[in-house]
Design a protein that fits this description.
The chain is of the alpha+beta class and 372 residues long. The chain has a domain at 222-371: Peroxisomal Thiolase, Chain A, domain 1 (3-Layer(aba) Sandwich). 33% of the residues lie in helices and 22% in strands. The strands form 3 sheets. It has a 9-stranded mixed sheet. Strands 2-3 form a two-stranded antiparallel ribbon. Strands 9-10 form a two-stranded antiparallel sheet. Helix 4 crosses helix 5 (135-143). The chain is globular. The protein starts with a strand and ends with a strand. 45% of the residues are buried. The model has no long low-confidence stretch (mean pLDDT 93).
């Protein structure tokens, strides 16, 4: 058995940014258009008028201040309200692979490795641009990596589930080095015309390189344990999959984009996640006072604050539970990895932390790491 370690990590951040103020202007223009088109039904009481959004509402509800996206113009067009992403020719790299390549190369540079050193690529993300061939195999080819590659989807927990799969294969000796990459184009499945969720998501790609601890070139994070769990729930859902649908099946189907029952999610997921982390730590003999940092899934600041208090038994200091939500919004599986990548370089040998993600499924995954 070999000891797995995270030896490199990287983040690709799209250059386009949509602030809350910009988003609100576009959404409210759309709401005005919708209300004008349905004025007669609204006057008759048959439908409710669409309410405007505000930057204050978004910040108070989520802690989000802006988001990065692959396309800004389409999202902010009140007549459209979804991104314009051009179709790629078959001989071109797909958009997910292109994003992933940037993040993977950053992780490889940090670890002092090249693509040829990698013998496993897992594309772990909640939104894939096609059913097949696997995005991971395309990334593998672009990196000139060896071995095998496959896609996996466990929604917002995809990255931590991918880390567990890669770490297990490292432990067994079936692979030597693995890239777990999460290119998330969440803007493509968000319903930007829904006031309750139009602000939630952003786009990004992350990558972590995992290899044998004994072969690490420099500072790294030893993986002391991984744990994943799922419990089926419809409270976070997107029914727009790869199955071919007729036009009449698509029309007026709100469930063909991201939707959630936020109150139920809050009530049911938070106890599940808190207990999961505490049980995982207890199994490893870790105590709350042993933790230097929590890198949590970046969905909602209130949710993270709740989990942090449960795990630590007190209110976490900002340095103990860093948030990137205000700058990136919810980036699905990539969120906890962004937090880890941007807020781990200051740790000293022996410092311990937990990477944890959670989301639709329900799903939750945790990774216990120690700076080495």
């Amino acid at each position: 058995m070999f000891q797995p370690a995270i030896t490199g990590h990287g983040v690709f951040t799209p250059s386009a940014v949509i602030t809350n103020d910009e988003l609100v202007v576009a959404f409210n223009a759309y709401a005005d258009r919708w209300n004008a088109e349905h004025a007669e039904a609204i006057a008759d009481g048959a439908v409710e008028p669409m309410q405007p959004s505000s930057a204050a509402f978004i910040t108070n509800a989520s802690g989000i201040e802006q988001r990065h996206v692959m396309d800004k113009t389409g999202v902010l067009d009140p007549a459209r309200m979804f991104p314009k992403l051009r179709a790629r020719r078959d001989e071109e790299p797909g958009i997910m692979a292109e994003m992933a390549l940037d993040a993977c190369n950053s992780a490889l540079r940090m670890a002092g490795r090249s693509g040829a050193d990698v013998d496993l690529v897992i594309c772990a993300a909640s939104n894939h641009e096609r059913a097949y061939p696997a995005i991971a195999i395309e990334i593998q080819a672009l990196l000139n990596a060896q071995g095998l590659a496959f896609d996996m989807n466990v929604a917002c927990s995809s990255a931590t589930f991918g880390i567990q799969a890669a770490a297990d294969m490292i432990r067994s000796g079936s692979v030597r080095r693995a890239l777990v990459v999460s290119p998330e184009i969440c803007s493509g499945h968000l319903e930007w015309r829904d006031r309750d969720c139009h602000f939630i998501f952003g786009d990004v790609a992350t990558a972590v390189l995992i290899e044998r601890d004994e072969e690490a070139n420099g500072a790294h994070f030893t993986i002391h344990g991984t744990r994943c769990a799922t419990a089926f729930s419809n409270n976070i859902r997107n029914n727009n999959g790869f199955l071919r649908r007729t036009r009449d099946q698509m029309e007026d189907r709100r469930d063909m984009q991201f939707m959630q029952n936020g109150r139920k999610v809050f009530k049911e997921v938070l106890p599940m996640v808190s207990a999961h982390i505490l049980d995982h730590m207890a199994a490893a003999g870790w105590q709350a006072q042993d933790l230097k940092r929590l890198w949590l899934h970046q969905a909602n600041k209130t949710m993270n604050d709740f989990i942090g208090r449960k795990v630590l038994g007190r209110v976490p200091a900002p340095s103990e539970q860093p948030n990137i939500l205000q700058d990136y919004a919810n980036t699905s599986s990539a969120g906890s990895i962004i937090a880890f990548s941007k807020h781990s370089g200051d740790l000293s040998p022996g410092d311990k932390g937990v990477i944890c993600s959670f989301g639709a499924g329900y799903s939750v995954g945790s990774v216990l790491v120690e700076r080495a």
